C-alpha cells in the first residue's frame, strides 16, 4: 500500500495537532508536516512534497486561496489541496475550488470522514462529498453571471460523448453511475474522463465540475 503524505496548514495549533493525531492513526496515511500560514504552506510543499494539503482558508501572512493557487499552479504540480472550512456554503470555498483545490471538508468532520476525504482527494477519481460540493458549486455559479466565452469555446474541443460525460460528472455521478447511465463499461468512462481532463487542461473531477457550471453546460437547479 502506498502511503499518502499529508501536510496540514492551519493557524490554530489545536486544529493542526488534532488532525495530525487522527490521520496518523489511519493506515496508509502519514502527516509529514504542519504549516502555520499560507506562506509556510507553500514553502513546506516545496520542501516535503506531500500528496495532499489540508488547507485552512483564513490564515495570516497568506490566505488559503492564494496559497492553493501557488501550490497547484505550476506546470506538473501533482499535490492535491483539500480546503478546511467551518461551514459548507462559504463563498471563499468556491473561490478555493476555482484556485485549484480538489474539494473541501468541514472542520467538525469525524476521523473516518477526514481519512476518507484525504484518500478520495489523493486518488482524484471522485468528487468529495458530491451532494454538498455540487450544491456549493451551483450556489456560487449563480453569482458569476453569464458563462465566459473563452471557457465556452473550450467545450467545443470535446466530442459529443465527452461532453455528456462531463455533464454527468458535474451532477455528482461516479464512474460506475455514469457507466450505468450510458450503458458502457466503467473503463470506457475512465478513458473519457482522462481525455476530458487533458483536453480542458484540468486537474481532476472537481475542477471539471466547476468548469461545467461556469460554461453553462450544467445549470444550477431552478435556473
UniProtKB/TrEMBL annotation:
InterPro entries: CheY-like_superfamily, NreC/VraR/RcsB-like_REC, Sig_transdc_resp-reg_C-effctor, Sig_transdc_resp-reg_receiver, Tscrpt_reg_LuxR_C, WalR-like. The modification 4-aspartylphosphate is found at residue 56. Residues 5-122 form the Response regulatory domain. It comes from the Bacteria. Keywords: DNA-binding, Phosphoprotein, Transcription, Transcription regulation. SUPFAM superfamilies: C-terminal effector domain of the bipartite response regulators, CheY-like. GO terms for biological process: phosphorelay signal transduction system; regulation of DNA-templated transcription. The keyword Iron does not apply. It holds the Pfam family GerE. Residues 151-216 form the HTH luxR-type domain. One of its GO terms (molecular function) is DNA binding. This is Response regulator transcription factor. It comes from Streptomyces kasugaensis.
Amino acid at each position: 500500500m502506498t502511503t499518502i503524505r499529508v501536510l496540514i496548514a492551519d493557524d490554530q495549533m489545536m486544529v493542526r495537532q488534532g488532525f495530525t493525531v487522527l490521520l496518523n492513526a489511519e493506515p496508509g496515511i502519514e502527516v509529514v508536516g504542519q504549516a502555520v500560514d499560507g506562506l509556510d504552506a507553500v514553502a513546506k510543499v516545496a520542501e516535503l512534497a506531500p500528496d495532499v494539503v489540508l488547507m485552512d482558508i483564513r490564515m495570516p501572512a497568506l490566505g488559503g486561496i492564494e496559497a492553493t493557487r501557488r501550490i497547484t499552479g505550476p506546470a506538473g504540480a501533482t499535490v492535491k489541496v483539500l480546503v478546511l472550512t467551518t461551514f459548507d456554503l462559504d463563498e471563499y470555498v468556491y473561490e478555493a475550488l476555482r484556485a485549484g483545490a480538489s474539494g473541501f471538508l468541514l472542520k467538525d468532520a469525524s476521523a473516518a470522514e477526514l481519512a476518507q476525504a484525504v484518500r478520495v482527494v489523493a486518488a482524484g477519481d471522485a468528487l468529495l462529498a458530491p451532494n454538498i460540493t455540487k450544491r456549493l458549486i451551483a450556489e456560487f455559479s449563480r453569482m458569476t453571471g453569464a458563462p465566459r466565452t473563452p471557457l465556452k469555446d473550450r467545450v467545443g474541443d470535446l466530442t459529443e460523448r465527452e461532453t455528456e460525460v462531463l455533464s454527468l460528472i458535474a451532477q455528482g455521478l461516479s464512474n460506475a453511475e455514469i457507466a450505468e447511465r450510458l450503458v458502457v463499461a466503467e473503463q470506457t468512462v475512465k478513458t473519457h474522463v482522462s481525455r476530458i481532463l487533458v483536453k480542458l487542461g484540468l486537474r481532476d473531477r472537481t475542477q471539471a465540475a466547476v468548469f461545467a457550471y461556469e460554461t453553462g453546460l450544467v445549470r444550477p437547479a431552478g435556473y
